[in-house]
Amino acid sequence: MAEILVVDDLDRTLELCRKAMPQHRFHGPLRSWAGLRAWLSAPKTSPDLVLLDVHFDIPSEHLLGLTGEPGPEDLERARRRQGLEILARMRRSYPNLPVILMTSRDDLPLEEEARALDAQEYTYFLDDDYVDAHALAAQVHGVLQAGRGAETDGPVFWGRSLGMRRIRQRLLVLSRGRLPIILAGPTGSGKSLLVKHFIHERSRRKGALVTMDLATLPRDLMAAHLFGSMRGAYTGSVADRKGAFEAADHGTLFLDEVGNLPEEAQRMLLTVLQDGRVTRLGDTRERLVDVKLVVASNENLARLVSEGRFRADLFMRLNPACTVELPPLRERMDDFEALLHFCVERALESSYPAELLADYLQQAGLQGSVPRTLAGEKVPPREPGSTWVFFSRQVVRQLRAHSWPGNLREFSMTVENALTFTLAELAAVAPGRRPDVIQVRPKLVHELLTAVGGGSPGPGGWTVSVRIRPFDSLNQLSQSVERQYFLELFKRERGDFSAMARVLLGDAALARKVQLRFNQLGLKVRELRRSLVP
Amino acid sequence: MSIPMPPKGLLDQVRRLKHDLGKYISLNTRWLPADARPQALREALRCDLLETRKADHRLENAWQIWERLGLPLLEAGTIAGDESVARWQSLLEPELARVATHMESIRQLIPLLDMASPGQLRRGAQAAIAVSRLLARLQKRIHLQVIQQEDSP
Ligand SMILES: Nc1ncnc2c1ncn2[C@@H]1O[C@H](COP(=O)(O)OP(=O)(O)OP(=O)(O)O)[C@@H](O)[C@H]1O
Ligand SMILES: [Mg+2]
To answer: Ligand 1 pocket, A189 CB below 6 A?
Structure first.
């Protein structure tokens, strides 16, 4: 079912649509820009599509596009093209909402205007000369499908925003090509996910996907892991080993956090990219490799270059002109609701929440029902077979207001946690009046969004605060404590890992070990460094 | 021999006629299957012919729209403010004359709609659909003529 707005000064289109497409919900008719604006500023639901008439025979005070003292001809012209004015105004706030203009393209007075509108993504003319109900229903179906087609690719959520659709299109092209791809974007924005579930798949390459996370690998081993090594090439190398390049032959090699690559390895990487051959450490033989390289960094590589921490010539080889920059979640709020639906569905497929759900449904006598997500809307009357995962307006507001520094990772974990705790709580009480409604409580969401508290230094040491929730594993708890302690220590020692190693392990030489642990705990050393006040 | 461009006033008027009348006069009727029951046909025609343009407070039937926008096109030299239009009206003849015939039969059907026989209803529906088609064709033809005119050096 789609939510469709009808913007028309007459009633007939709406009446016809309701008859011809009973599977969708139509709202309207909205008779002017003022009506549409009012509806959109307090939407009853988020619309999937707008059907927009072009001619509006309405009083002059409701007309857009009039200036000065309009004469009768001006008024007539403004009325005949009112839909286009409304469209232009609407596009300022809703660039991506699909709109079908209820006119065929050659009914527009101006040829250039028609062409410009034709070129707009998400704006469609009627396929048919007239509002024929069959043709319109087919077109509505087509437009809704097109909107949905690209919304997800397996585990990857794209949404409908123009920006994300462009990125998808771009990555499709880049994936098929020979050149390397740079993925940029903040933590949790989907870089690793895209490599695995989109870029490699779409590259149609027959070889494997090999991933190297340069944030966790010790720096002195990176070159050997990348290019391979012969026995005895370095201390501890006891056998000939092939490197990631050879393992990824005819496939894709993904270097995550490529900014961590040491200078020497950068130089060697450049040579491989130039010649298409690798030489294992300690070997003289060159081996041909055909590898598609993808690199990711949540630091700006260009800046690393300008700071002298990344080789400019290597950077140029990585095809920087085509860098794909993934936006932070807070810039994707257009797609908030769709993302929420997506994450709920995904969470309910993962094993633990799925188990809890099955138990709950059985207990409530609703087994077999597949819950649908309801966000910010009223709960509909009970219907046999239907169940809902319900996020009230208040919860939607809470989620929208959060800044999501951990981006989609944080969002999808929050949704999964919210569902898990909700289901676990429900299992402990007797079914209420509406067992078909699984309601996520605002209080729970509030707790989840504020759980990541900081430690506060005090006399004689630091106090860390841990919120213990049912189902937290011991490991999660101790990691949370460890993380807070590490952060405080990092600040006190001003980022000096040797000093931290002395405190923690009694041996300054074990700095590397401490740094590894930082990485394991998901603490981003580079970012922390930057946050230290100079 | 190239035909000079029709004046803009004429094109606009054709466009309006197609929009106001052509779009709505068979909106419901077109949607019905060929073997629709007489009662369904009567309902659809009542919407299409009697409430052709219906908004909050305004109501125009099909004939009233034709009187407002169509008849002036047939009556030479009556489009306000554009003398040259009269000379172009013959360009509209092929479709417009046939629309006029269909509209005449629709005018007669309007007051009888509640009592009309299945045969009359069917003919009314055919007339309404024909009006939509003819106006679409007319609009396309004039439009193309303008485009060709603009494209030719
Ligand atoms: N586009 C997306 N669609 C669905 N889920 C996503 C998307 N992007 C991120 N996620 C969720 O966030 C998690 C983390 O994403 P990913 O590992 O790709 O982030 P990243 O950009 O590589 O971050 P980092 O820089 O910290 O490595 C994924 O496992 C997934 O659950
Ligand atoms: Mg990653």
So the answer is: yes
Which pTM was predicted? 0.55
* Structural domain for A312, as ranges: 152-327
Tell me, yes or no, whether A161 and A297 share the same domain: yes
Per-residue pLDDT of chain B (153 residues; tens, 9 = 90+): 334 445 667 778 888 899 899 989 998 998 888 788 999 999 999 999 999 988 777 789 999 999 999 988 887 555 555 555 556 667 788 899 999 999 999 999 999 999 999 999 999 999 999 999 999 999 888 877 766 666 554
Q: Would residue A468 count as lying in a domain?
A: no
Kindly state whether residue A466 falls inside one of the protein's structural domains. no
What is the whole-number distance in angstroms between the Cα of residue A328 and the centre of ligand 2? 14
Domain count of chain B?
A: 1
Identify whether A457 is part of a domain: no
Instruction: Decide if pLDDT at A121 tops 80.
Output: no
Residue A456, in any domain of the structure: no
Q: Please report where in the chains the tokens 């679409």 appear, as a residue.
A: B136
Kindly list the residues from chain A whose CB atom is less than 8 angstroms away from the CB atom of residue B19.
Answer: 54-55, 80, 103, 107
Q: What percent of chain B has pLDDT over 70?
A: 80
Are residues A416 and A363 part of one domain?
Answer: yes
User: Ligand 1 in contact with A298 (CB < 6 A)?
Assistant: yes
Which residue in A147, A83, A166, A77 sits closest to A117, CA to CA? A83
Whether residues A309 and A415 fall in one domain: no
3-class secondary-structure state, position A156: strand
What whole-number distance in Å separates Cα of residue A294 and Cα of residue A176?
Answer: 12
Cβ of B12 under 8 Å from any chain A Cβ?
yes
For A198-310, list the strands marked E by DSSP. Answer: 209-213, 252-256, 277-279, 286-288, 292-297
* A58-74: average pLDDT: 90
- Are residues A178 and A316 located together in one domain of the fold? yes
Phi and psi angles of residue A182, each rounded to the nearest 5 degrees, phi first: -100, 125
Nearest Cβ partner for B15 among A11, A15, A109: A109
Q: Name the residue range of residue B137's domain.
A: 8-151
- A254 with A355, same domain: the answer is no
Residue B81 lies in a domain: yes
**ipTM beyond 0.90?**
no
How far is Cα A193 from Cα A188, in angstroms, rounded to an integer? 9
Half-sphere exposure of A84 (CA within 13 A, CB side): 20
Chain A positions touching B28 (Cβ under 8 A) are 16, 133
Residue range A393-435, pLDDT digits in tens: 999 999 999 989 889 999 998 999 999 989 988 887 777 889 9
